[in-house]
Write a structure and sequence with these properties.
single chain; 4 domains; 33% helix; flat; binds zinc ion
Length: 459
């Protein structure tokens, strides 16, 4: 079998490794290799170098499915981005043979998109899944090494969500649940107990007494006077717990405002953007391990992996994170300057799956292409769009009053109607919008606004 041994130093002991093995420590030598190549065997090299090798191989049109094995113990990130650890040279040949056999059955790739690359990779490695690893240095606490290798620039949550919504991957295991700052999506949070009244952190757990005579509640220390205990307000001498005084249920005392309370307010301070978040506003994310579905296998075999909705991502498209950022900015501008108006519009695109099943993938693809084309004519250069899930398209429309929105809705309906087939099926739009002039601008946040509109449309 043809292979390359990739490492900074010559091979250590590996059973069955031929004496005259082809050895390199240079990535471009591997990429420019002209003859046949069945696999790469990775030895001892810097982590960064191994990562760069795997990234370049996986993103390379010719080599993207080439098996990469290792035989030394490597960290969890490196283990995830390679195909397998082998304990002998024979084992590497055997595994490479299995992978090459499946590769032979794949149809030639038509589109060089990251979804197809990922699905083809997983399909040819039957034992491999999309596995998260914990990384305390990562803002999101968990990383998906395999996805990062295929596209280092992508937000992995967004990619996973899209694949899951299109039923191409399915969770095999719930690994963990994390909480992220809703403003910047980092998991580096400091949980602080604060006063329920003034939110000071200068609070402490203390013992309290409650005087039965006058009802005063105060710190134990206020009641002790030498050998005797008496109420600091009515001066009654307190002798017997249960008949003169008792311990109330308050447990905490604030040194700044004097408030006594039972349970402190827990606030999660973000270590990245310094926002102080109530714990109930944090984004809760479940971390799963995923594998391919049967539909994914079929889609790879029929070359229909492409996300048809992605055709809509050319309408001044920005990532959901940026969209929220701009929406917050528009909210602030509209609050400050009364002449600033904007509208937030949501289009829920429906019936595409039914059309695909009925008329086939190619036809539906063309239909959506037509829709995207006509929508592009409606969108102004100042409008922004994003998708928060496969079929939820958002538009942020500056300087757009109610009648402007109504005209746009009418035109969108016309686009939807133009897709109507003889049997009555069509790409359906459910459209809703919010106008800045109708909002309480000082108390609105992008996230909650979008949540609100989404609930209205999809319910
Ligand atoms: Zn206080
Ligand atoms: Zn008293
Ligand atoms: Zn933050």
């Amino acid at each position: 079998m043809d292979f390359i041994y990739f490492a900074d130093t010559p091979a250590q002991d590996l059973e069955g490794l031929p004496g005259d093995y082809p050895f390199t420590c240079d990535i471009s030598t591997v990429l420019e290799h002209s003859g046949p190549l069945d696999f790469i065997l990775v030895g001892k090299a810097l982590d960064e170098k191994i990562i760069a090798l795997c990234e370049q191989i996986r993103q390379h049109a010719r080599w993207s499915l080439l098996p990469i094995f290792h035989y030394l113990d490597l960290g969890s990130y490196l283990t995830e981005i390679m195909d397998a650890k082998v304990d002998s040279f024979e084992k590497a040949c055997e595994l490479a043979h299995d992978i090459q056999q499946i590769i032979q059955t794949l149809p030639p790739i038509l589109a060089d998109d990251k979804d197809s690359n990922l699905l083809r990779l997983l399909l040819t490695r039957q034992h491999k899944s999309i596995k998260p690893i914990q990384d305390w240095q990562s803002p999101s606490l968990f990383r998906y090494p395999l996805l990062e290798t295929l596209d280092p620039s992508i937000q992995t949550w967004v990619w996973l969500k899209s694949l899951q919504e299109r039923k191409l991957i399915v969770s095999t295991q719930l690994i963990d649940r994390i909480r992220l700052c809703p403003h910047c999506d980092t998991g580096h949070l400091n949980y602080i107990d604060t006063c329920t009244n003034c939110h000071s952190i200068h609070i402490e757990q203390a013992d309290f007494y409650h005087c039965f005579t006058c009802g005063y509640v105060g710190l134990q220390t206020e009641f002790i006077h030498g050998q005797q205990m008496s109420c600091p307000r009515c001066h009654t001498v307190l002798r017997h717990i249960g008949s003169d005084y008792d311990r109330p249920i308050e447990d905490y005392h604030c040194h700044d405002c004097g408030q006594n309370f039972l349970e402190p307010d827990v606030v999660a301070e973000c270590l990245q953007c310094h926002e102080k978040n109530p714990t109930e506003s944090l984004s809760v994310i479940s971390i799963h391990e995923y594998t391919l579905t049967k539909l994914a296998t079929m889609s790879v075999m029929n070359n229909t992996v492409v996300d048809v909705y992605a055709l809509l991502d050319h309408l001044n498209f920005i990532t959901p994170q940026y969209f929220e950022y701009w929406l917050n900015w528009y909210l602030q501008m509209a609050a400050r300057y009364k002449t600033h108006h904007f509208a937030l519009m949501l289009i829920h695109i429906d019936q595409v799956e039914a059309l695909t099943q009925h008329f086939g993938f190619g036809f539906t693809h063309q239909l959506i292409e037509g829709v995207a084309e006509r929508m592009r004519e409606l969108i102004r250069t100042t409008d922004l769009s994003t998708r928060t899930s496969t079929n939820l398209l958002w538009l942020l429309l500056p300087e757009t009053p109610a009648d402007g929105c109504e005209i746009l809705v009418k035109r969108l309906r016309a686009i939807s109607d133009a897709t109507k087939q003889e049997d009555g099926s069509q790409i359906a739009f459910q459209i809703g919008y919010l106008l800045s002039s109708e909002l309480d601008l000082n108390h609105e946040q992008a996230k909650t606004l979008m949540h609100q509109l989404e609930g209205k449309i999809t319910s």
